[in-house]
Amino acid sequence: MSMIKKWPQFENQVRRRDMKLLKRLDDFPDAILVAGCQRSGTTMLAKIIAESEGLYDFKLGATDACLDAALILAGSVDHQRVDRRYCFQTTHVDECYPEYLEHTGDFRMLWCLRNPLSVVYSLVYNWSNWGLNTTFMRCGVSELETYDLRAPLMRLLGARGVSKLHKACMIYNAKVSQIFELSKRLKCKGLVVVEYDELVNRKHEVLPKLYDFLEVDYRSEYADKILATSLSKANRLSDYESETILRLCEPVYDKARAEYWDTASDRPIWATEKL
Questions:
Q1: pTM above 0.70?
Q2: Rounded-to-5 percentages of helix, strand, coil across the chain
Q3: Are 119 and 43 a contacting pair, CB within 8 Å?
Q4: Mean pLDDT of 7-13
Q5: Long-range residue pairs from 132-138, CB within 8 A, at least 24 positions apart, any chain
Q6: H/E segment holding residue 248
Q7: Mean pLDDT of all residues in the chain?
Q8: Which CATH number fits domain 7-274: 2.60.270, 1.20.1260, 3.40.50, 1.10.10?
Q9: Measuring CA to CA, how many Å separate 272 from each of 24, 99, 106, 188, 231?
């Protein structure tokens, strides 16, 4: 069993050694992957699915579910697969997302899309400084010059030269933008972009459709695990914060929502229908 219990350990012992993060993905036929930007509801959705009847709810010990999934997929633990379907949360893949394209495609993906006000608020105020800074350096820093933001100060001071707010905005744009490339190139059993706010506000309509896509038996009590308590967090932002987030991130969010949510029939569009 791996001695990795915390994300910084995973960073040092797996990612920085250039180990494949999805090395064992093909070992889990018809797996379900829950991906997207951090703080977008991926943990909640992955937990609900993993605990559904017919799936194997793996637990490795005193770690969080996303880290458990990361250890199994990277082959960092000696995990013997059971003959049941698995649901893996894969938000940690970050800049290594092209790895999804290297596999046979015997999986289904749910990509969580959430409005930028809620996500950025949570990244800034409900996430560790280590998580914010590390993720920014991995997949957010490249967005700075696109938006002409503090590039000279960044070169002088490193991550310290960029505010937490701008780091979070760049992380959001980088992660959401990944879906545009994946939807065109990913060859898998199916890809759905899940609009988090729609899922929470209309859970008894949207969640059964997602289970139908996953080919997992649905029970009405699964929707009871979806709570609306986090929808109001964006109201805590200052006017400056809200204006900054909307200016930088709303175009990316609007583009993703327009492409992957069918407003006419109020359902998520199977992104692979576009292939």
A1: yes
A2: 60, 10, 30
A3: no
A4: 93
A5: 132/164, 132/167, 132/168, 132/171, 133/159, 133/167, 134/11, 135/38, 135/94, 135/171, 136/162, 136/167, 136/168, 136/170, 136/171, 138/94, 138/95
A6: helix 239-260
A7: 87
A8: 3.40.50
A9: 23, 18, 14, 8, 29
Asked if 207 and 267 count as a contact pair (C-beta separation under 8 A), the reply is no
Report domain extents, the chain. 7-274
- 261 and 268 Cβ atoms separated by less than 8 Å: yes
**What size, in residues, is the chain?**
275
Only one residue has tokens 């001695």, namely: 3
Residues 6+ apart with CB under 8 A from 201: 228, 231
Report the DSSP beta bridge partners of residue 195.
113
CB 34 within 8 Å of CB 72:
no
Amino acid at 79: H
Question: Tokens at residue 239, please?
Answer: 């006017």
Split at pLDDT 50, 70, 90, the class of 65 is confident
Q: Which amino acid is at 126?
A: N
